[in-house]
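Quick log. Single chain, no ligands specified.
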Amino acid sequence: MSLRTAGSVLVVFLWSVAVVLGQDGWSVRYTTQSICTLKGSPVEMSCSYTYPSWHKVTTTFWFIKKYDVENYVSLLDDPDYKGRVTYRSDKMNGHTLTITDLRESDSAEYMFRFITDQTGGKYCGYPGVTLSVTDLQVKVTTTWWSMTLTCSTTCTLTGNPTFTWYSNSKIVQKDPSPSYTIHFKTEDSFYCAVKGINSPAVSVEGHSYFHVTYTHQKICTLNGTSVDISCSYTFPSGHTVSETIWYTKGKLNEAPQILSPGYGGRVEYLGNMQSYSILRITDLREEDSAEYKFRFRTDQTTWEPTFPGTTLTVTGLQVKVTPATVTEGQKVTLTCSTTCTLGDNPTYIWYKNGHVTNQSTSLFLNPVSSEDTGRYSCSVEGHEDLPSDEETLTVTYGPKNTSVSVSPSGEIVEGSSVTLTCSSDANPPVDKYTWYKKNVTSPKASGQSYSITNIISEDRGEYYCEAQNRRGSMNSTSLMIIVAGKQTSVLTAAVGIIVVVLVLILCLSGLMWFRRSTAGSDATTGIQSVHPDPNSDTYTALNMKTRSPEYDTLANVRDSPTVTIPQIDADASDYENYNPS
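-> predicted structure:
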């Protein structure tokens, strides 16, 4: 076998640990399938991938969560990993995920996915890399001649680590073995460490030991709730416990603060006074955050442990919106944030405008719409009476529902005026309105309202407006304006009728005058007339011959039966001798 062939075989062997997936040129190969590492440390997971040569990779990411068929959540977008995840790519289609400040909750299966520029060009490396995150604990095994301390983990640490043992903060052993054996009586405290990560300390004394074991090294809980900080303790046979005390050290160089039962009305001691003790604090406040320690006295001695106690962190809830400025169509994440990690994987309840909307650690709005605008808050299940402050989500969007209205409504006639008004829903509000007439290139006007005065037939046509803000613009539908011909108003018609009536009255008056004038002429030509009694007030006669001033006009003709004037046949000579008097 040649050297080159041997090198190739070696490369293949190194990758044999990996998982090979896919066919027809598609694959994802992980450097390792499982990793066990320590809480608080960093970790790297690597892979390489292949795909058909005519494809071009456009997106690469790692994930553990999948909310739908194609809704994968990149770790960079997962709020549980915010600020702790980085990606690194190389030119040979390699990809590395780095996670820092590991938590036990990070234990999961991590998978790599990539997307190409071709239709259907998506591939996911499954199964992925199983990550287990563990902490260090010291387990004590005793015999009558020795005591063995073991640096214990929940999984076998990857990479053959070295275990370092400390006694009273001084190194007493460095070895690949996790165990350390003591063959003498001592009151020293011991703890182990791997790569700078320390275990809790324990204290021993021969075969009978003064020892305190705290149930929890760290506790994170909500403001306003209660907490139990507990420990168990042992002491040499022949001693009797006379006093137990919980205290907190506070700041450096300050005297310990003794938390006696009833302290501030919020402290209570529970336990049997012989092997375990519980400190209960109610109505927690953020200023209660501190390190709490336990000590006890016996009838023969006072013993106080020097190793750490239980660190309590009291946190409130806060809604964080990412990104802070939201535009319709974007992906928005609302996170119920705390200053520490709450234990027992709590369930978060989300509220919108005071009403329950969802249950999850984070609220994903993808894509966000204007209907998502509102006041959001969150609480922890079981503590719904302790919600976070409300955070207002404001979604900006371009104009929508743009429309035109006309005033006055109804028929539009020549010479009248109309006002067109444009309305649109937008956030931020519309800052520019422009008016157009269909088939006319240049705009007609600007402003939310457009008035057309003294309308003429050329103004008929379709009008529309454009609403615009810094997020976009939208045209309204067109509004047709139909201009009718001029109409005679009621006043004009009335004036016309009055004029016609006056003309008729004048014509009738002229006709009457003409007939009376003709009647006077007939009298001079010998036509005989019938004259009523001159003393009667029923008629007023007109003496055409004498034309006395008192008969110059026709007046006071009262209503009376019609008088028929008979026609008198006479010769012209008869008229000559006729004397009306």
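Confidence is low (pLDDT under 50) at residues 1-22, 488-493, 522-581.
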